[in-house]
Amino acid sequence: MSLSNAEEQLMQLLWKQQPAKMKELLAAYPDPKPAPTTIATLLKRMQDKGFVDYEQKGRSREYVALVKKRDYFSKQVNGMIKHFFNDSASQFASFFTKETDLSKEELQELREIIDKQLKES
């Protein structure tokens, strides 16, 4: 299951400052800020999807992410590779290196990462 764009934006804020109360999440939004009812609706949908939960602290709730950012990002990237690149990581890598205007230094860093992975395999 994945998040909508609005849910993903809120999840990014939660990953940065969890645990967080709704008012803290709302304060972290850039202007124009969404309505508190919008945030409450998004949090409820995200809870229903199993991405967040909360602990009651007095009269307010502290929200926490149930899914790690790395795990979510990994699933999204793997889904993109499957759907847009015929499940081929090499096609994705080729597209990524050609279409993102990487500097020579960044390409060298990628080479070093790949070389390190090859040595560890």
Explained architecture:
The protein has 121 residues and is mainly α. The protein folds into two domains: 5-65, Winged helix-like DNA-binding domain superfamily/Winged helix DNA-binding domain (Arc Repressor Mutant, subunit A, Orthogonal Bundle); 86-121. The protein contains six helices and three strands. The chain has helices at residues 5-17, 22-28, 36-48, 69-84, 89-99, 104-120, and strands at residues 20-21, 52-57, 60-65. Strand 2 (52-57) and strand 3 (60-65) form a beta hairpin. The longest helix has 17 residues, at 104-120. The radius of gyration is 19 Å and the shape is elongated. The model has no long low-confidence stretch (mean pLDDT 92).
Features:
121 residues, three-stranded antiparallel sheet, Arc Repressor Mutant, subunit A, mainly alpha, 2 domains
Order of helices and strands: HEHHEEHHH
CATH fold assignment of the largest domain: Arc Repressor Mutant, subunit A
- Whole-number count of domains: 2
At the first level of CATH, the class of the largest domain is Mainly Alpha
CATH architecture title of the largest domain: Orthogonal Bundle
Average predicted local confidence, pLDDT: 92
Considering the protein shown, what is the CATH homologous superfamily of the largest domain?
A: Winged helix-like DNA-binding domain superfamily/Winged helix DNA-binding domain
Strand order of the largest sheet: 1-3-2
Q: How much of the sequence is in beta strands? A: 5-15%
The global form is: elongated
Tell me the helix content.
55-70%
Helix/strand-derived category reads: mainly alpha
Which consecutive residue ranges, at least 5 long each, have pLDDT under 50?
none
Most strands sheet: 3 strands, antiparallel
